[in-house]
Amino acid sequence: MTTEITPVIPVPERAARVFTALAAVATAGTALTAWTWTADFPGDLTFYGSPAGLQWLTLTGGLITAVLTLARYGIPGLRWTSPAGGNNGILLAALGTAAVSWFAIIAIAVDLGGLANLEPGGWLAGLTSLLAVTGALGLPLDRRTADSLGKPNYWWLLAGVVGYAVHHLITRTLRLAKIERKLPPARELPSWAEVLLIIAAFAVGLFAITFGIDTEYGELFTGYLILAGFTVAALAKTGLLQRLRALTVKHRPVATGAAFSAAAAFPFTQTSDQYTSVAANILIFATVALGLNIVVGLAGLLDLGYVAFLGVGAYAAALVSGSPASPIHVAFPFWAAALTGAAAAMVFGVLIGAPTLRLRGDYLAIVTLGFGEIFRITMNNLNGTTGPNVTNGSNGIPRIPDLQILGFDLGKKHLVGGIELGRFSNYYLLMLIITAVVVLVFARVGNSRIGRAWVAIREDETAAEAMGINGFRLKLLAFALGACLAGLAGTVQAHVSYTVTPDQYTFAEALPPNSAFLLAAVILGGMGTISGPLVGATLLFLIPKKLEFLSNYQLLAFGIALIILMRIRPEGLIANRRNQLEFHEPVIPAQSAPEDAVPLTKAGA
Amino acid sequence: MHDLPQQLANGLILGALYGLVAIGYTMVYGIVQLINFAHGEIFMVGGFGALTAYLALPGGTTLWLAVPLMLIAGILVSTLVAVGAERFAYRPLRSAPRLAPLITAIGLSIVLQQLVFSFYPDAKKARVFPKIPGDPFELASVTIQRSDIFLIIAAPICMLILGWFVARTRSGRAMQATSQDPDTAKLMGIDTDRVIVMAFAIGAAFAAVAAVAYGLRTGQVDFRMGFILGLKAFTAAVLGGIGNIYGAMLGGLALGLAEGLATAYIQHIPGMHLFGGGAWKDVWAFVLLIVVLLVRPQGLLGERVADRA
Amino acid sequence: MRHRSALVVSIAVIGALSLSACGSRDEKKAGDTAGGASTTVTIGVDAPLTGDLSALGLGIKNSVDLAVKQANEKNEVPGVKFQIKALDDTAKPAPGQQNATQLVADNSVIGVVGPLNSSVAQSMQQIFNDANLVQISPANTGVALSQGEKWATGTKARPFKSYFRTATTDAVQGPFAAQYLFKDAKKTKVFLIDDQKTYGAGLAATFKGEYTKLGGTIVGEEHVNPDDRDFSAIATKVKTSGADAVYYGGEYPAAGPLSLQLKDAGANIPLMGGDGIQSGDFIKLNPKSQGDLATAVGLPVEQLPTAAKFIADYAAAGYKDKYETYGGYSYDSAWAIIQGVKAVVAANGGKLPEKPREKVVEAVQKISFDGVTGKVSFDEFGDTTNKQLTVYAVKDAAWAVEKSGTFAG
């Protein structure tokens, strides 16, 4: 693949730059106008001089585009936003702004029934954002050379003329490519300044995530997602994210601390339990996904029934919780219940793992898949008529009492620092501690001798065993550890949702947590990383939840998104460094590239 | 135990249905080592394809004419969807991490279910599928409903055709070669892409036959029917030895028998009265799978493969 | 260099403008709501609005919507306008609980209709109870939800004072069916099948208790997975058991094929179920359904003018989806909340009090009116006092009234 740095629209670079910057600022400015005449559209975009909802997003996008464009002038104080140089970041930011603006225009037209509902301000936003994109296309961009393209792929005609046109536009007209640029060495800063930078970055991150969770209507969330996606891609292109990453690696303890403080600060930004209940469930889901990442990401064991271990933990905790519906009338303190849940899950992990982990390959997949279903069926059956009475069958174990830890009732509201923390805030904070434990376990084990042995087994079990690694024992350890962590999360889940029922633990459903979503969170987020599953789980939780306005099409949209994301980033959103090298540099052109395969098969047929 | 012949017949008929779907899993896995989770949904769209054909026919068309037309329509729809999925969703991921296509498969299965759910008329609930009318046949002590005759005839014919195709034709042998060693097969001039498409297409066609049989048998098709059946069929494929087409059918029959017999007789075993019946049949099928994997890790008919990582 | 500084300045101006503008918007908003003459309160709805139970969920939502619209049209509560806020729980406890917190956080919400599933109710009850927010389920049948876990042994205790339901519990429908099968249909050997779900297993258990008490024999028991559609092994068992009827606890998607496969296997005996199978789809899915039986709550539509009016109004309102099984109960649930609000407003001198939620709970406990499904009022557990039931039988591909009666207990 050969690359070049040329504009898509051949105009003088200076002119393009001025044009882009002015158009971007103008786009931001349109956020101050009224976009529609009626307050019926969510967020009420009828005010002059007072942006709301989607307008804030356009404003932010326009400003980011402007700042990135200006940074290429070398303006002091802005240069840091674009350390790597290159103009692709500007194009991405402009595209993101245009996408958000046009999404808003279309949403207004669809919601209110017709383009007539737009005020001139809305049209202006659409126009200026497109002008900014046009300007960015006039900047020299990193592209593939025209002669390095293969034959056009007419299969896309199957996806309709529009599909083919889009495919053609992306791969043959824009031809965007990635050119590795060396980051210039960062200016030496005193370490307190670097720490401050990290804290500032996490504060921005907290703000962005809080904004996402707090979005009150689906249109705003979709716009947020569009803009966030493009902005992150743009900042990755400009090198700002790499800079930040280097900083966090340098001050890892500070970065970790800042991340957890930011997460712990979330309930304090909320006025009611409305979104903390969502956040608490996100955290449960994310923690379980992280546990699964040990099994799948580190040890390479495909577990399709992982949610069952969450269920084992939850059921164990429910049984010893003192619920009036539990046939065992004991009430353990939380630490004992947590240990019970974790231990029970571990026992099941060993029971399932011991016979099957001796086998190689994908047999584990079907056994775990089967176990997931069997768990649910068995919990249904242990109801007194079709089995011993343990679980109440499909009635489950309801009325699980709230936790009391050291006299602190998690079910009640408490005042902390003048801010009222409700029930779900308490559970959120408790869950955050559990998440921290899992992160700690993951980080310590992953970098230890055992973790390296897991990676060795994952890559090539035969070679690993030849090096003296006991494959079975280590695989069983990974499996049991993963099960144990899921069980731990399950103990909290039981108390948060007040009830455990068999139908909460299924293979695939519309909403997380379930085994398919857990696996998707790990793979989508990035296997073998800590932040990957956390990000993946957050997205997978919020997207179906916030896309309620799509009503019956939300699952459809979700499925399509899964397929497209896997197509674009098969290594996950946050890739393990090694994976990334493996899957984005065609080092071995063998069977991977279809172009190469053509002459070979021609010769044979 | 005097209803044993009847229960055996029930188990075998259900098992043949599993086996037909299992062939799709086993062929795709044998060649690209991909667990095609969307295969259950390919089965489902086949059923809806057949239903569409039936609804398009003028009322009062004799089933002798309708069933073959429905079969053709079902096969057409299933095969098109499967080949399209391979081309657009799986092929671009062939060099991606091993688990990425799995997520694509899960995504695809959601998409197919939702497409039918949202866009097929009235598919939010089960749709009525035609049945072959008339009283059931009585053979000695065994009662067989008329609609099952289709499956009893179709399953062996399908197996014979597939056996002949794989063993005797040029394409079939190319398929075997690719499954044994894709790289060498490619060097020998085999168009492996074509072989993969073929595996998807054949699996889909068999799934469509199974879907018509399922529709006739239960008198309905619904958008979720692929999930449970796909799970069972996948289990059958592993039970029989994944990668082996006869194994898939054998695994299906074994699974169907195990479920039928477990429902009927486990609770008569002393001490097991609480663990029998329909509630536990899936658990016993799972136990069977574990036992088989422990005793014969490669499945009933599978060949021992040194390393299938 | 000139345009560069122009850019910087304009950015700064935009930033300042937008920041300063924030305040003015908030003030305007506050003015808007205070100026309104009548108070608007919200009735929350929690039901599965997407997924495979969405047909039932949308029926619930639309029926509540109809009740609210009619209350506003008729000016049922002077000075108070109603609106609905429908949230989707996808039939799962966790999203249901999040919806519950969302409804609690919205101060205008004065009562909630829902949910459809018992497991969802379990995760919500405590949240609503803590917030003193009245919750009326149109569909939950699990007895323990309102009478405590020990109801079967006779020690009934209501766990949540804010939880009500217009649906009858399993403890009514199952025994009524048992009495009919034994006394009226003279079936003495019944094969009992359920789908292991709360509704189905509950029905089967209560049926069994009453039927054996009456002297009937349960010749066999089976359980199916609600997602299964192949029942050949079970059909064979039924046939060899020599039963002269089957009682099925569960819903029509599985009951249809089950009944069909029973007859295909040569067991020509009727299948009886609860209101979960009393649906036109049961007959559609089952060409051999002639003679199958079902119980349903309330008098037949023909004998109840309120029901006929509801059906006509629902059709006139032009909803895209049918009202389905729980439409009538949902309408009654919403109307019960509206009546509760009416009582609270009347007691407070024609105005809604500052914190009305707790008072609405108390008022709903006392309401009594003629609803779509019959007389609507609640007993000391929050259960409906309506114990009128009707047995239907399939005749010529339609449900025909077989017998109506009141369950005596």
Question: What keywords describe this structure?
Answer:
heterotrimer; A: 605 residues; mainly alpha; ABC transporter involved in vitamin B12 uptake, BtuC; 2 domains; two-stranded antiparallel sheet; two-stranded antiparallel ribbon; 22 helices; 6 strands; 3% strand; disordered C terminus; B: 309 residues; 11 helices; membrane (chain B); transport (chain B); cell inner membrane (chain B)
* Oligomer class: heterotrimer
The CATH topology annotation of chain B reads as ABC transporter involved in vitamin B12 uptake, BtuC
* Distance from first to last alpha carbon of chain B: 45 Å
Main sheet of chain B, how many strands, which sense, barrel?
A: 2 strands, antiparallel
What's the short story on this structure?
The complex is a heterotrimer of chains A (605), B (309) and C (409). By secondary structure, chain A is mainly α.
Question: What would you say this structure looks like, in words?
Answer:
Chain A: GO terms for molecular function: branched-chain amino acid transmembrane transporter activity. The complex is a heterotrimer of chains A (605), B (309) and C (409). Chain A has helices at residues 13-30, 54-71, 88-112, 120-137, 160-174, 191-214, 218-238, 240-250, 252-265, 273-298, 307-319, 334-356, 363-381, 423-446, 449-459, 461-466, 471-497, 515-525, 531-546, 554-568, 577-584, 594-604, and strands at 3-6, 141-144, 404-405, 408-409, 414-416, 419-421. With 605 residues, chain A is mainly α. Chain A folds into two domains: 3-185, no CATH class; 277-541, ABC transporter involved in vitamin B12 uptake, BtuC (Orthogonal Bundle), CATH 1.10.3470. In chain A, the strands form three sheets. Chain A has a two-stranded antiparallel ribbon. In chain A, strands 3-4 form a two-stranded antiparallel sheet. Chain A is globular, with a radius of gyration of 26 Å. Chain B has one domain (4-295): ABC transporter involved in vitamin B12 uptake, BtuC. Chain B is built from eleven helices and four strands. In chain B, helix 5 (148-168) crosses helix 6 (170-180) and helix 6 crosses helix 8. The model of chain B has no long low-confidence stretch (mean pLDDT 90). Chain C has two domains: 39-168 and 301-387, Response regulator (Rossmann fold, 3-Layer(aba) Sandwich), CATH 3.40.50.2300; 171-300 and 390-406, 3-Layer(aba) Sandwich (Rossmann fold). Chain C contains 13 helices and 14 strands. The N and C termini of chain C lie far apart (91 Å). In chain C, 59% of the residues are buried. Residues 15-36 of chain C have low confidence and may be disordered. Chains in contact: A-B, A-C, B-C. Chains A and B meet through helix 13, helix 18, helix 20 and helix 22 of A and helix 3, helix 4, helix 7, helix 8 and helix 9 of B.
